[in-house]
Amino acid sequence: MVVVIDTLETRKTGRPRHPEKANRPDAPILRKPDWIRVRAPGSAVFRETTGIVREHGLVTVCEEAGCPNIGECWSKKHATFMIMGDTCTRACAFCNVRTGLPAALDPTEPEKVADATAKLGLEHVVVTSVDRDDLADGGARHFAETITAIRRASRATIEVLTPDFLRKDGALEVVVAARPDVFNHNLETVPSHYLTVRPGARYFASLRLLQQAKELDPSIFTKSGIMVGLGEERNEVLQLMDDLRAANVDFLTIGQYLQPTRKHHPVARFVTPDEFKAYETIAYAKGFLMVSSSPLTRSSHHAGEDFARLRAARANRLGA
Ligand code: SF4
């Protein structure tokens, strides 16, 4: 199913969800293969999760990105919070999050996220955000305040999935000083695709961010993810794995790119489950502590279970 949210948004607000993409030619949508099948949303627990998210006035990447796993995740009360609003200052070609000028930060949001984490009973919470290039610190302090508020309200381990903080000196230090358990920043794609897929970002700046996070606090787990099926070559993916290992990244996620609307980057092809398995095998051989590679892998999919395995893998390696 293709998300037609762009059209709906225009009808509702009179403004396209992605104004920068409105005049782009429609890209054809490939039919999904049989191996991309997801659970339909709608269980009682799913509705309970929705209620807690709404009651706290929170935004989730699960909804904003049109994530295919929402039926499964929300039926287990696993929601991933997206802080600092629902509007992003970047305009990546793959992303369904609304773009434009964001509103001011909500100073009560860290407490709301903390309260919702406790109410959902999360043992591991993932907090991500829109890009906030408009803020002097890129939103780093808001991330830190959210981590601190969660620590006060619950025993959940905390994973942050941050923007690249490009040209925001000192921002990473602020986030790392708040001591998240996992620092995640997605490379999203191979360097040759940055100009078309992630034009506002710089591959080596993202890589360096991950490396610096580990240098600042070696006890923090670092994690990064990419989408495949955007037209990348296999060797480019293997090179990216080497780059991440050179930056001491612990955990790699690889998932199939799905095109949110006809205005987004087209899917070049659907990578087969066997190819995902092969990427996983190679990535482990290259030294990652954890790898999740499958068509429906997303950064925050099964993040709690994966974190437990990640910790065990480090303990195992240190004991070996
Ligand atoms: S995979 Fe992540 S973004 Fe998707 S529904 Fe699950 S928690 Fe939300």
Mean pLDDT: 94
What is the number of beta strands? 9
Secondary-structure element series: HHHHEEEHEHEHEHHEHEHEH
Query: Span from first to last CA?
Result: 46 Å
Structural class: alpha/beta
What is the helix content? Answer: 25-40%
Radius of gyration, CA atoms, in whole angstroms = 19 Å
Query: How are the strands of the biggest sheet laid out side by side?
Result: 1-4-5-6-7-8-9
Could you give a short account of the major beta sheet?
7 strands, parallel
Unreliable stretches, pLDDT < 50, 5 or more residues? 1-8
| Hetero groups | iron/sulfur cluster
Shape estimate: globular
Strand content: 5-15%
Q: Provide a count of the helices.
A: 12
Could you please describe the fold and organization of this structure?
- The model is unreliable at 1-8 (pLDDT under 50).
- By secondary structure, the protein is an alpha/beta fold.
- It has 12 helices and 9 strands.
- The radius of gyration is 19 Å and the shape is globular.
- Strands 1-4-5-6-7-8-9 form a 7-stranded parallel β-sheet, sandwiched between helices.
- The chain binds iron/sulfur cluster.
- Residues 61-62, 67, 69-70, 73, 78, 80, 298, 300-301 line the site of iron/sulfur cluster.
